[in-house]
Amino acid sequence: MHFANEYDKLKVEPMPYRAWFQCINEKCNEQYPLNKIIYRCKACDSLLEVKHDMQALAHRSAKAWMKLFEDRYKSTQWPYGSGIWGKKEWVLPQISDDNIVSLYEGGTNLFWAERFGKIIGLDNLWLKLCGNSHSGSFKDLGMTVLVSQVKQMISEGAPIQAVACASTGDTSAALAVYCAAAGIQSIVLLPKGKISMAQLVQPIANGALVLSLDTDFDGCMRVVREITKDETIYLANSMNSLRIEGQKTVGMEIVQQFDWEVPDGIIIPGGNLGNVSALGSGLLMMRDLGLITKLPRIVVAQAERANPLYRSYMKNFESFEPMEAGKTLASAIQIGDPVSIVKAIRTLKQFNGIVMDATEQELADAAALGDRTGMFNCPHTGVALAAMIKLINAGKIDRSEHVVVISTANGLKFTDFKVNYHEETLGFPSTYANKPIEVPANVGAVKKALTNALKKKNEQKEALENALKNRRAKNV
Ligand SMILES: *Cc1c(COP(=O)(O)O)cnc(C)c1O
Ligand SMILES: [Zn+2]
User: Fold this and answer.
1) Which of 59, 79, 95 is the last residue of a domain?
2) Are residues 301 and 449 in the same domain?
3) Residues with beta carbon inside 6 Å of ligand 1?
4) pLDDT tens, 431-459?
5) pTM exceeds 0.85 for this model
6) Distance from the CA of 408 to the center of ligand 1, in angstroms?
7) pLDDT above 50 for 7
């Protein structure tokens, strides 16, 4: 025995890493192979999650994993330069490299939002820009995994004709573009009139079969669940936990970008709640494999008009009731009946979680204030920033804390939101509106306009900075 153990330690050849679907219901824990067309447990109908052979992964030391991830990060070594596939062994170990459909996702920048932080009262605030990605949102992180697995299943003879999703916009954009890259047909079901033009144009351009349904996201979700009962149409919504496997790298990547230091808090906007579950799952895996020893606190931010998780949080998660989501500028999180509710609550309990919501004006003003300090926010990032400001004001986040806000999409996808804000046509005051000034085309008029406008800009800047001083004075 003794010799066998010693021998095991010396073995250097890579272990065969393995992953499978497992029912999240602890009383069931039924397992299924990843190449089975299945989205919920056959035995108890709970959601599934991807589980890994942690013992095999633990054969490599934490230090060795960190070194491997660092060596691959943004390298030119295909497919390992991708933020997802650089962590392939932790994501989808059994896929053949030939079937990987990667558009070099992940590896997005994490920047110190120094000026915004100072204005709202945080010294160490960072933004993780997941929207600086191929299709302009974090959805790419999960879609590369799902579409790669589909490609692998097709190569093994699975009768998949198309991949379908219901979407509030960004999922369909990511699905369409990854499918287009792989030569697989995509189908997207969108709620008519509820997504931005920029989001609609993406799946159209990428050749998806686009169906516009006169309902909301939850209505589209109900339909897509029915049509994907036919196994030739594969379901790409985040109920499919393959996407979570890709998305879980976001927390890992943040920690890696901080030289393996764990921040105190991570704030993430939540709708269907797959992403918060993914964030938690990646961080737990890092802890279990010894790469980190502490966990950050996780904050989920919701729009007040679509805040079923917040309502449940206010009741200590003792009950959960789906709601009909009201119209919100944060259209990607206009969801009243989140698919991943059970996983999200589990995550929040493990991460000392907080849920906070934000009104339309709060989210729009927070996004605009962020833009004033060098960001270019989508409304969902606005929700996260607004929730953070409220938590700082309530004393739940301390000014010395190291905080990361996950920015979920690129602001360029939401130009209508921004234009309407600055034209002050959103139906509430736009605190940071910045309207163009119309001036006759002569130097005298321009000079005069500039003198006035610069004075006004300076006053605005002083007002922002005074607001901070007042807050500080109140805090001490
Ligand atoms: C999908 C999406 C979200 C919400 O993510 P969930 O996993 O549904 O909670 C937030 N912001 C943007 C921009 C999105 O596209
Ligand atoms: Zn089950």
Assistant:
1) 59
2) no
3) 137, 139, 170, 238, 269-275, 332-333, 378, 380, 408-409
4) 999 999 999 999 999 999 999 999 999 99
5) yes
6) 7
7) no
